[in-house]
Amino acid sequence: MAVVPASADLRRWLGAPGSLTARLRLNGAVTVEVLAQGHIVLLPQERQALGCSAGHVREVLLRIDGRAAVWARSATPLSAVKGPWSAIKGLDKRPLAELLFSHRRVLRGPLHAQHLQMGSPLQRRMSRAWQAQAGRSGCPTDAPPRWARHSLFTHQGRPLQVLEAFAPWMLPLPSERR
């Protein structure tokens, strides 16, 4: 299957700097639904980025006015969650952005766009979670994300990878104040 080129709306979201949660809030009330959290075997791309095979993973759905908009997954080595990234375990339904963008010492690497290839471990994991959870709020289950972005954050030299996959329906929404 050929990869459909990214639209202008999609490129705008994939490259938007700063807090994704703050950008989503421009379009309505944002809630965080925790889908999974704990020690998990990492996906191949995470293994490569973090240099380990298992880590602490947090998967969430970010909803705008109850409608599933973004599936997000953060991963860090187990040793890092006992150190500089320990606050992740206590986030509960608060967005990760509260940690990432409130500490001056947290550094963010470049954003990388990624097409979610059908059948890949990442796409299968995201799609299962999306189908199981996206329609629970009474909203229709929208098409699952096909594109994501990921970046590596570091705090006290310890990595945390964040991946955010965007529902097609939300791409035309504004990503910045007008």
Provide a compact summary of the structure.
Helix content is 22%, strand content 33%. The protein has 178 residues and is α+β, with helices and mostly antiparallel strands.
Q: Specify the oligomeric state.
A: single chain
Biggest sheet descriptor: 7 strands, antiparallel
CATH topology: Chorismate lyase
Arithmetic mean of pLDDT: 89
Integer tally of domains: 1
Q: Which class best fits the helix and strand makeup?
A: alpha+beta
Spell the H/E element sequence: HHEHEEHHEEHEE
CA-based shape: globular
List descriptors.
single chain, 178 residues, alpha+beta, 33% strand, globular
Can you put this structure into words, describing what you see?
With 178 residues, this protein is α+β, with helices and mostly antiparallel strands. The protein has one domain: Chorismate lyase-like (Chorismate lyase). It contains six helices and seven strands; from the N terminus they run H-H-E-H-E-E-H-H-E-E-H-E-E. The protein has helices spanning 8-14, 20-24, 44-50, 78-81, 97-100, 121-133; strands spanning 30-41, 54-64, 67-77, 107-108, 112-115, 147-155, 158-166. The longest helix has 13 residues, at 121-133. The mean pLDDT is 89.
Topology:
Elements: H1 8-14, H2 20-24, E1 30-41, H3 44-50, E2 54-64, E3 67-77, H4 78-81, H5 97-100, E4 107-108, E5 112-115, H6 121-133, E6 147-155, E7 158-166
Antiparallel strand pairs: 1-2, 2-3, 3-7, 4-6, 5-6, 6-7
